[in-house]
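Form 7-S
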Amino acid sequence: MRTASPPPARRTYEMLLSYDCNAKCAFCYNPPLTKEVLAQSIPFARAAAKLAKARAEGYDGVWFTGGDPTLRPDLSKLLLLSRKLGFRRIQIGTNAVRLSSEAYASRLAAAGLNYARVSLHAATPEVHDRLLALPGAFDKALRGIENLRASGVYVGLNFVVTRDNAAELPAFFALCLDRLGVRDFDVIFLHHRGMMDLHGDELGVRYSEAVPHLRAAWRLLEKRGLRRRTPTLVNLPPCAAPELEPWIADWSSEETGDALSRPGASAVDLMAMKGAQKTKGPGCASCVLEPRCLGFEREYAARYGDADFKPVREGARA
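Output:
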């Protein structure tokens, strides 16, 4: 079943409800799940107050993340409240394992969920389940996607690029198009912090190693006449693949407006937070994108250096 995308949000309020998760992704940018971290969460009353304040400030999209928000017993109540407050795009980020229950997916849709971003990190169950350290996660995610779409929820996919799955990018694009019927997918490059800071030697991949697989996947889209604004590329400095710059998000100082709220912290501007995590190298001064570009992540440069970042010249972009 094809579902229409919900109205685009002008400003999105992302709420990280808790760090609790049924997967144990070694590449996660959240901190290791100690007892102290798992105890951090936003109680319902506090979440409700944050939602009301965000709506009053003009946010018309809300995105519940974690961890995995489907582990929250009050998720349906939060979705219902979001709908009553007038949010037009009501979204979750999830591995969709719990959504393999048709009844649960239907309940969330009835409460107001109209958009789900499902994390699917491979084209095969072997690689996906190994990355999540959760046997059966791939097959459950596919059932979850089917259940969401059957309930009228629009589905997009997130694919985080690691050393283990970079070569699967072309096959992942084919899976999205041919088996799942999904044409909204984000390709996200690693943040070397949180859990990933501990597993960089095991799972880290340089942009220069991953981008050739991305270009091969792009050729698949071009052959099918699907070269358009999606997929979106995230945490990829445009100088690492200048011809793909129109599809890269979160690199420009001109992108503003969305906020992130976490347990025990005030909401922050997402792009300001991301900009503070980045730096620039000596070659950036001669790049045509420099006036707008936020740079590249400090942790990446500390691990790999800055050889992947070459100044972009006029005419190098798509």
